[in-house]
Amino acid sequence: MSTRTFDSPVFVKNGDRLVQEIACLEDALEFLYDWPRNRRGPIHATALRACQKAFETDYPLSAARSAFVGFAKSCRILEDISTVMPWVQTVSSPSGGIRT
Fold first, then answer.
1. Distance between CA 73 and CA 99 in Å, rounded?
2. 95 burial class (0-12, 13-18, 19+ CB within 10 angstroms)?
């Protein structure tokens, strides 16, 4: 387990409808390194530099996470999972049991 774990994970779309959890600095760096070269730009470069700096120095992990989130937003791959998907939600039944 990484000692550079984010306070809260970032969820991004990776490919066709796949959602990937970015839970730590190493996950973010791997995602950024794997990002297609023809889709890279200044925001990608900024996020990559911030994550590399946090990996190599005492640069704040929260700043690296924020840079990664900014990159994900700019590419429209950021997933908001703050709302539970209806088919995952559990509901208490009147008899006290739980049904899904």
1. 35
2. exposed
Model pLDDT for residues 11-57, shown as the tens digit of each residue: 999 877 788 999 999 999 999 999 999 999 999 999 999 999 999 99
Q: How far is CA 53 from CA 16, 62, 67, 97, in A?
A: 31, 12, 11, 50
Would the pTM of this model clear 0.85, i.e. be above it? no
What are the residues whose beta carbons fall under 8 Å from the beta carbon of 65, sequence distance 6 or more? Answer: 6, 7, 10, 28
Of 39, 31, 91, give the one whose Cα is nearest residue 64. 31
